[in-house]
Design goal:
This protein is 30% helix and 24% strand. The protein is α/β, with parallel strands linked by helices. The strands form two sheets. Strands 1, 2, 3, 4, 5, 6, 7, 8, 9, 12, 13 and 14 form a twelve-stranded mixed β-sheet that branches. Strands 10-11 form a two-stranded antiparallel sheet. α5 links the parallel β7 and β8. α1 packs across α3. It is globular.
Length: 296
């Protein structure tokens, strides 16, 4: 299959038609290039807040709910485009309201995976960054899920989630793990990319990182974004020696394309040079407890 992963800029949208035109153009370009799976980044939906005016978009609290109100319309557009072009689309994540058990409504960071059949899978972020938890008050959402699609089994680890190996291991049946991200500095991009590559290594699968790029001075949350789209696999048989299938130029907007064959995932899991996925449980009993040895 061909995967298209986005290095995506955020725009001030004068009206809904501008968003329709932008998204349609992006999807048309990727589908015309032969992509089967299109991956947009974390918090790429924040540009929807500009439809309510820059005062709202610039207010951290108000922007959350402005985007949440627009997500159903955005979802309908994504579903239409997925069906029209016969592609799977991971929509840019954004704040969504939910019904929490404690009755206190706070937004979650939600990604949605659209199949050409019209079916939709929903994945919420699991672990909040400091900004999300301490400043923005975005909360963890529903549990991890594994989506069984016509393209293979797909899991989603939203940005910071990709840096936690137990979350990655929970998706060890996934053929592809999508990692939509937004990071404000090279260090943050590097953390998420390293996490994505580590998950590809230990699960012997394909991981796909998308990024928001560029400036959005109208938003305190996503005002500066640094990154690039990337597609990774285990550095083993059937994959590049570096594990890098495709990588965009830093901060250069557009699609990054890579071709992958899930038969290579199946093969490396059975007969790779190493068998990280099979040997995961070999850690049990060897990692705890650690003996402290004092050397004078």
């Amino acid at each position: 299959m061909r995967i298209a992963t986005a290095s995506y800029p955020l725009d001030v949208l004068p009206d809904w038609a501008a968003y329709e035109d932008k998204l349609t153009a992006w999807v048309t370009e990727a589908a015309t290039a032969g992509a089967d799976l299109l991956v947009f980044p974390e918090y790429g939906a924040m540009e929807l807040a500009t439809l309510a005016g820059l005062d709202v978009a610039g207010d951290l609290e108000a922007s959350l709910f402005a985007v949440a109100e627009r997500l159903p319309d955005a979802d309908a557009l994504h579903a239409h485009l997925a069906a029209q072009f016969g592609v799977h689309i991971l929509a840019a994540s954004g704040p969504a309201t939910h019904d929490p058990p404690d009755g206190v409504v706070r937004p979650v960071n939600r990604a949605r995976l659209f199949a050409p059949s019209g079916e939709v899978g929903v994945q919420d972020k699991q672990i909040m960054t400091r900004f999300e938890a301490e400043t923005w008050d975005v909360v963890p959402g529903g549990p991890l899920q594994l989506f069984d699609t016509a393209l293979g089994r797909i899991g989603i680890l939203i940005c910071y989630d990709s840096e936690f190996p137990l979350l990655g291991h929970a998706l060890n049946e996934a053929d592809i793990i999508l990692v939509p991200s937004v990071t404000e500095a090279l260090a943050g991009y590097s953390r998420v990319r390293i996490g994505a590559q580590a998950r590809a290594l230990e699960n012997q699968c394909v991981t796909v990182m998308s990024s928001v790029v560029g400036l959005a001075p109208w938003s305190e949350a996503v005002d500066i974004s640094v990154g690039a789209g990337g597609i990774f696999g285990p550095p083993d048989r059937g994959f590049p020696d570096t594990g890098v299938v495709a990588l965009g130029e830093m901060n250069e907007t557009g699609w990054v394309y890579g071709d992958v064959d899930l038969a290579d995932v199946a093969a490396v899991r059975v007969d790779g040079g190493v068998l990280n996925r099979r040997d995961w449980n070999a850690q049990t009993g060897r990692a705890d407890p650690v003996t402290v040895v004092k050397l004078a």
